[in-house]
Amino acid sequence: MTPAISCEQVQVGYGDLQVLRGVSFDIPVGQGVVLLGANGCGKSTLLRSLNGLEKLQSGRIRIHGDSLHDASRRDLRRIRCSMGYVFQQFNLVPQLSAFQNVLLGAMGRQRFGLLSCLGLTASAEERERAMDCLDRVGMADRALHRPSALSGGQQQRVAIARMLMQAPRVVIADEPVASLDPKAEREVLDLLWRIVREEGLSMLCTLHQLDLARDYADRIIGMKAGRIEIDAPVAEADRDRLDALYIGMARVDAQHDGEAA
Question: Of 132, 167, 202, which residue is a domain's last?
């Protein structure tokens, strides 16, 4: 089966700074992968590369078999629409209700753009789907609340509902619980992984909490100074190997393997 995400010897740099140094991995359809690594190790650059926001020096990235390298503008837009995102800071529009924020997830497939997604001209089908997505995350009773009236955990649930509204095939979750307290962390990750599995999606999720990574991931990919140091099923990623990702020359702007970063 064609992988959901495929990276082949991906290299990205800025001037003399080499950030991604031959990164290769495949994520099969239906797998939830946690990406670990210290700040500055190249994780953010990798995530931006996965939707074509970073120009590759060499290598290739494919999303469900579609190459980003030679995609037309129209094809790149289609590929991006197949990828749903969950962010650390939620990225909800503060002036809109939870319901309207979820409707924004449909923008990629709406002819009439923003007005339709604000609910002014949204079809009954899209409005029903938005409420169903809110119900899936336990937020249907908060549909008319603005983000300021919601807790951090509730805001992240709305963001997950917006991602679900998009009907993606691949989910990129970038530190989705970094702004939450320990109880909300578990609740959000329980919800996120359940939805990914129920929908048969594939996910790459960056985390810093090693215990959470080991509890939720099907597989762990660990980066250190722009390279993949660990790529293993969660049962084979022992604590010592994970701790080593954060020790020594972990950043891309430090010396690594005798090479100036």
Answer: 167
CA 133 vs. chain centroid, Å, equals 18
213-232 pLDDT per residue, tens: 999 999 999 999 999 999 99
What's the pTM? 0.91
Contacts of 199 (CB under 8 A, 6+ apart): 164
Other C-beta atoms within 10 Å of 209: how many? 17
Asked if 36 and 242 count as a contact pair (C-beta separation under 8 A), the reply is yes
Within 10 angstroms of residue 106's Cβ, the number of other Cβ atoms is 22
Number of independent structural domains in the chain: 2
CATH number of the structural domain spanning residue 100: 3.40.50.300
Answer yes or no: do 62 and 185 share one domain.
yes
> Could you list the residue range(s) of the whole structural domain that residue 39 is in?
1-82+169-261
Return d(Cα 133, Cα 125) in angstroms, integer. 12
- Worst-scoring range by mean pLDDT, 66-75, 91-100, 107-116, 230-239? 107-116
Please say whether the beta carbons of 221 and 42 come within 8 A: no
